[in-house]
């Protein structure tokens, strides 16, 4: 065999793929055991508080009696769903829930994205960290405190902001009892409390943008706005799409605590939503099966929205949830 043949054979041998030997799953488990220990609390949380309670939806098809339990209570099929859809309050509750959800999606969902883009443009690291700290703090404030602050500022009986408005216009505005102001107040509270916290994911995504793309754009004469529009936003579009899908999964969840705290007898016509209705029917009136049927109706809408939005996002060329 000539030298040329030996060289060809040697080159062929060097290009052969090297396959790693298979490792038994018990060996891998033993090697990574501490990682599984760290994973255990999260798994237990979802099993105990998320998956196990799902059995409770069975009572929406029963005339549930607590002393009889799940299996001894009378099965009534879709009777509670029919009663809910025929209830005169159904369309009012659906309208109020849908309006708040749309307000949240239109005004609150883009707010963390815009704030993250603005923070990303700050070049002084000390000032950037200072601003981030300020906008993160409201997330850790209880909604009870937020509602109390809102009351102190807006009440007609000595509210600081209302007194200021009265000094300008000569009259006070009854924000807390007005049906017209209820939804804007709810959205403003959410935006003040959660916008800063929502920037964390987007800032993490922005940290992975290739700096060379910005440098090339600067060389081409692109300003800050054009760099943001043509480089930054496309770089985080996948993250935006995934978070939008997840948000649509809880589209009908308006937040019971906040609505309950801001609701009163004068604005109840626009404040009553599915979350407060479930509380009133299930806890106050003891209609456990009926209120569970209402909650299951909300969950089904969330599943449909997640599946539909994921399909649309993938058709648009973005990565979906699955």
Automatic annotation (TrEMBL):
Pfam families: BPD_transp_1. It is found in: Cell membrane; Membrane. One of its GO terms (cellular component) is plasma membrane. Residues 94-309 form the ABC transmembrane type-1 domain. The chain crosses the membrane at residues 34-52, 100-122, 134-154, 186-207, 228-246, 288-313. It is a multi-pass membrane protein. GO terms for biological process: transmembrane transport. The keyword Ubl conjugation does not apply. Keywords: Membrane, Transmembrane, Transmembrane helix, Transport. PANTHER family: POLYGALACTURONAN_RHAMNOGALACTURONAN TRANSPORT SYSTEM PERMEASE PROTEIN YTEP, PROTEIN LPLB. This is Carbohydrate ABC transporter membrane protein 1 (CUT1 family). The lineage of its organism: Bacteria, Bacillati, Bacillota, Bacilli, Bacillales.
